[in-house]
Structure formats: C-alpha cells, structure tokens
C-alpha cells in the first residue's frame, strides 16, 4: 500500500494477526476503528511517517 502525503484514510479495523501489544499502542495513540488519519509528511525512504488523527 502506498501512503501519499496529503491523503486521508479511514481505519476500518485491525486484522486478528496484528500483535496485541502493537494494536494496543496504536489504539492508545488514537488510531481507533472509524478514525480518519491524514498523512502530513513522509520521509524520503518512506519511514517515518507523520500523521494527524481525528475522529
């Protein structure tokens, strides 16, 4: 999946195969199912990615 600067995405949910600790960290940061995230900035090699979340 390509992540494009300036694009918005909606989190539909998490697959059961996602590590529970990793899922909990994302949920704590506000990346809840139904949340909309906007990609603010992407580093030249693709990592890290700066995002903004809103529900």
Automatic annotation (TrEMBL):
Keywords: Iron. One of its GO terms (molecular function) is transition metal ion binding. This is Iron transporter. Pfam families: FeoA. The keyword Iron applies. InterPro entries: Fe-transptr_FeoA-like, FeoA, FeoA_core_dom, Transcriptional_repressor_C. The keyword Iron applies. Residues 6-53 form the Ferrous iron transporter FeoA-like domain. It comes from the Bacteria.
């Amino acid at each position: 999946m390509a992540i494009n600067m300036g694009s918005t995405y909606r989190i539909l949910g998490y697959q059961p195969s996602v590590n529970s600790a990793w899922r909990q960290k994302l949920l704590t940061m506000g990346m809840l199912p139904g949340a909309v995230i906007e990609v603010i900035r992407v580093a030249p090699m693709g990592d890290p990615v700066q995002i903004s979340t809103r529900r």
